[in-house]
Amino acid sequence: MKNVIEALQARGFIDQITSDELKSRCEKPIRVYIGFDPSADSLHLGNLLGIVALAWFQKFGHTPYAILGGATGRIGDPSGKSVERIFLDDGTLARNVASLDRFLHKILQFDGGPKPVILNNNEWLGEFSLIRFLRDVGVHFRVGQMLGKEMVRNRIQSEEGLSFTEFSYQLLQGYDFYYLHQRHGVSLQMGGSDQWGNITAGIEFNRKMGADSIYGMTFPLLTRSDGKKFGKSEEGAIWLSDEKLSPYQFYQYLVRIPDADVIRMLKMLTFLDLDEIREIEAGMHVPNSAQKRLAQEVTRFVHGEAGLVAAEQVTEGIGPGTESNLSGDVLRKVAADMPNAALSMQEVVGQKFVDVSTRVGLTPSKSEAVRLIKNGGAYVNNERVSDPAFAFTSANLIDGEYLLLSAGKKKRILVRIEK
């Protein structure tokens, strides 16, 4: 395909577009942006859709812009939120912005195509006084239209309500689009489907200010077939930063994607040709084959080849059926790339599995640990534990230093004995 809009439509990537003219406009190079919220010091799996969208535009010769919300992060976008966000202090926000900036500079260095641009919207929004912003920007927004936005209606009708601070957020994002269009020639803003109201507010503001040929596009949120959002596990968010989630843990989350969702994820989170994805789908009679390919492609994109190698080495080194291969050398190599905990010898030897597993977070409670054992899902060094009273001895320690505890065949924690 020669047009990025056609390519994205074929992959189910497009939810709404403000004008059908965008397709013909994309026959020539344009500049396109997505905003990233610095509410945490790492992006998560849901944010990856935006990064992939920018990559697709770059592959077709368009210039991607990533905008960090150094200013808007002080307010917090109410879209998709049922309660008002807790405001971050200036120091935390600055650290989050710096962390996201480092990550985006690493992942947005796509091979070939126009060079990505990363900006912080505090550079222009931070210069405004309240009076000047209300006079120069606020005067162009009509309260009736703002109240008509779905995100505003939903919050106003909720028990929590909507503060004036959150209500004004669409003015800030609308001005972002205006500034980027005027100063950088950006003509397309993209975002998840919950950003439609903010995006159209920015387009309306641009048009009132005399701008033309500007567009908005949204992509579906990353949700499972049952309607729940992807990007969260029992342990928390699926972070993109290897400082918050190791490549192994990231890889393992993707390997566990349900069959009902894996093909859609391959279309939306990878750059594989659709013909190849159809071949993968046809081969799904081989258990977990599609999930493994998804995990390989996405882990490589986010963590690089080295991250993928580390994830696969850990998976191979501690996987089911590797009892005879588990050694201190193997576990020392994989320790940094998987969940682990350090305990003293006294906290392990002579202690019950139910106590140790709860202490290191493998199970949330002793009763859950007992239930895990009775259901056949408790393992020590890849060997099943069948007795709820099982207690560790020094013979269980690999090289006198390690224990590999597992809940089922997917959740594992490496315990290291402190000396």
Can you tell me about this structure?
The protein is an alpha/beta fold. It has helices spanning 4-10, 21-25, 48-59, 90-107, 122-125, 130-136, 143-148, 150-156, 164-167, 169-184, 196-208, 247-255, 259-269, 274-282, 289-318, 328-334, 353-359, 366-374, and strands at 16-17, 31-36, 63-68, 117-120, 188-192, 215-219, 232-233, 236-237, 340-344, 378-380, 383-384, 402-407, 411-418. It contains 18 helices and 13 strands. The chain has a 6-stranded mixed β-sheet, with helices on both faces. The protein starts with a helix and ends with a strand. 39% of the residues are buried. The model has no long low-confidence stretch (mean pLDDT 88).
Short overview:
This protein has helices spanning 4-10, 21-25, 48-59, 90-107, 122-125, 130-136, 143-148, 150-156, 164-167, 169-184, 196-208, 247-255, 259-269, 274-282, 289-318, 328-334, 353-359, 366-374; strands spanning 16-17, 31-36, 63-68, 117-120, 188-192, 215-219, 232-233, 236-237, 340-344, 378-380, 383-384, 402-407, 411-418. By secondary structure, it is of the alpha/beta class.
